[in-house]
Amino acid sequence: MKKLLSLLMLTVFALVGCQSQSNDSDTSANDTNKELKKVSVVLDWTPNTNHTGLYVAKEKGFFEEQGLDVEIIMPGDAGADQLVASGNADFGVSYQEGITLARTQGVPIVSLAAIIQHNTSGFASPADLNITSPKDFEGKTYGGWGSPIEQAVLQTLMTVDQADINKLDIVNAGNADFFTMKNQGIDFAWIYYAWTGIEAELRGEKINMIYLTDYTEKLDYYTPVLATNEDMISNNPDTVKAFVTAASQGYQFAIENPEEAANILSAAVPELDSELVLESQKWLSSKYQDDAPRWGEQKLEVWKNYADWMTEHGVLEGEFDPEKAFTNEFLPE
After folding, report:
1. Cis peptide bond upstream of 332, omega within 30
2. Closest-CA residue to 284 (of 153, 214, 196)
3. Looking at residue 15, what is its pLDDT?
4. Rounded to an integer, what distance in angstroms lies between the CA atom of residue 301 and that of residue 11?
5. Exposure check for the chain: N or C terminus, fewer CB within 10 A?
């Protein structure tokens, strides 16, 4: 009888042990198959090397490691800021100038990280026109997109260089191609060197470049940035933290591995010119973080200085609180 009881007890212990192992196995499987949270990030424009870190974070699994399933979407007619502000996209690629204007109108959009630490945009012109300073804008034609910001920027640069903006012809060129503008009587345009400037190099077309930061620090604002809305920050801070962490990893990878990062972007968006992507990535990778202590870091003085400049030139009306327009709290230490 004792022998039989012992056997029965051993059988029970074995069954309990198996059940425990089965539960452990189920728990492990549940952890492995934990459902990822779906979120979206809307681009500001056609995919380019401003966006490489996002594509890297998706391809390398950085978003997935943070528990996110991220969909990268195009802005369409609504625009990235509108989609983010309305909650129709969780995150987006925006600009300091856009966020500044939006917040004076009560739009609750917030910058989470500076994609590029310093402003790399400026005015480009064919080299044979000899436009090498804002003074040379006199007697020329500028092709823009009709924003009041453009005239204010041009006036600032020309004033610093003791030039008269009344001697400059400003026309609305819309989305005209920079490389065909000359045929339309346009002498210079506002571009990002990392893309259009590099394309000019590859085409063998020599251009002169006048960067906004060459003449005043007030125009060294953050462009572009990653943004979200106040509701996301208040109601889903863990999701915001996860997104920014993974994006930071993506851009850090692009900084350290520009060629592989370029290949990832080209594979994800095969319609892009792979040579342009590669050369652009090489040029831009050192600009993402630049002299900041970490990628994405933003300074209050940059937000304040640019808003003050906008107010001085009549392009910003209403109250603007720079401290509420951006945050560094979700960046990795």
Report:
1. no
2. 196
3. 33
4. 73
5. C
